[in-house]
């Protein structure tokens, strides 16, 4: 429910923004908030077409200085869809924005103009959630980072990547048949 | 599936018979699914000697689950490779999970079953506390770089093997893999295992994928020794 409200809010707010621009511009600016990682993954790049004006406006999320947290930046990507203006209104039709690669997936929106005004905004491509392809919310993930460091606590067992050994080995822990105290 | 198996049971009514039953079950899984065995069902199937209709229920189940995991991971998890089916990536976790059901059916609630670094963890250890599992340092297998305290979850780690016995070679850093290892914790080991395999293949994007999965958490280590982990991972670092 929360995701729906958030997505609806996002769509409505830039719907209003577009309508506000209606009287002054001959192109529609689509501002799509996306999350980018700030620690240099080579795959998270933006794919903007060469004839769009792009005006990215970096805003960092407030970081919690008590934790070693890497906040992911919110980048508002502005891309222009050329739309012929006529008498202060837009021409009716459907227009598709650039496909943007962000947050390890593609985002692309389509705007629908009828009677000269924006009447609908739809997702053409959206970040799919792992399970069912629902539209994911634009909530920013807060992945955390740390340098690895040897730990010395008592442990019961270890999880690590392991080899496939040729022999089939069975082993039993010596504590197995002891009665619980 | 020739891998070390460890079972520890903390329940007081443990006996030798239950170990025999679980080990025998795992041996039978190996005999059905090992691509290294000439007469295993999977080898015969790959050679075209068994039609799909005649496959065992277990084999059909593995194919079905593999297809589901392939869809969930956008194809990063796939048992079809090089013209053959090799289900070992999913069978390991699935077998652990099935073995844990054998224990639960017999009333055992406090145990773990491990195959080659993947665990199904149940209840509490012999001291009455959550099981303390170390995450191995991928650069030095004698060290653990994180301790997690677990109960009633599955945990699986996927990683490169190149730093095992050999001296770490910086020239090999830029090989096919983008990361050193990723450890996944979730409600069961069979999904944790598949996700660990898929996320490793996704490279640095894998940790984002896990962040999006409800109920699953991950701890990823890159070639520089920096760990990136999901927003809820730290709950497992607490002892109680």
Helical amount of chain A: 10-25%
Rg of chain B to the nearest angstrom? 18 Å
Work out the strand percent of chain B: 25-35%
As a whole number of angstroms, the C-alpha radius of gyration of chain A is 25 Å
Major beta-sheet overview of chain A = 4 strands, antiparallel
CATH class of chain B: Alpha Beta
Uncertain runs of chain A: 24-88, 130-140, 164-181
What coarse outline of chain A follows from CA principal-axis ratios? elongated
How is this structure best described in words?
The complex is a heterodimer of chains A (181) and B (240). By secondary structure, chain A is mostly beta strands. Chain A has a domain at 2-125. Chain A is built from one helix and twelve strands. With 240 residues, chain B is α+β, with helices and mostly antiparallel strands. Chain B has one domain (9-237): ApbE-like domains (T-fold). Chain B has helices spanning 16-33, 41-46, 57-72, 88-105, 189-202, 206-212; strands spanning 5-9, 80-81, 84-85, 111-115, 118-122, 131-137, 140-150, 153-159, 179-186, 217-222, 226-229. Chain B has a seven-stranded antiparallel beta sheet, with helices on one face. A two-stranded antiparallel ribbon of chain B has the order 2-3. The model of chain B is unreliable at 163-175 (pLDDT under 50). Chains A and B meet through strand 10, strand 11 and strand 12 of A and strand 1, helix 1, strand 6, strand 7 and strand 8 of B. Strand 10 (144-147) of chain A pairs antiparallel with strand 11 of chain B.
Give the topology.
The complex is a heterodimer of chains A (181) and B (240).
Chain A lengths: L1 H20 L5 E10 L20 E3 L13 E10 L2 E2 L2 E2 L2 E4 L3 E3 L2 E10 L2 E9 L18 E4 L9 E3 L10 E3 L9
Antiparallel strand pairs in A: 1-3, 2-3, 4-5, 6-8, 7-8, 8-9
Chain B lengths: L4 E5 L6 H18 L7 H6 L10 H16 L7 E2 L2 E2 L2 H18 L5 E5 L2 E5 L8 E7 L2 E11 L2 E7 L19 E8 L2 H14 L3 H7 L4 E6 L3 E4 L11
Antiparallel strand pairs in B: 1-4, 2-3, 4-5, 5-8, 6-7, 8-9, 9-10, 10-11
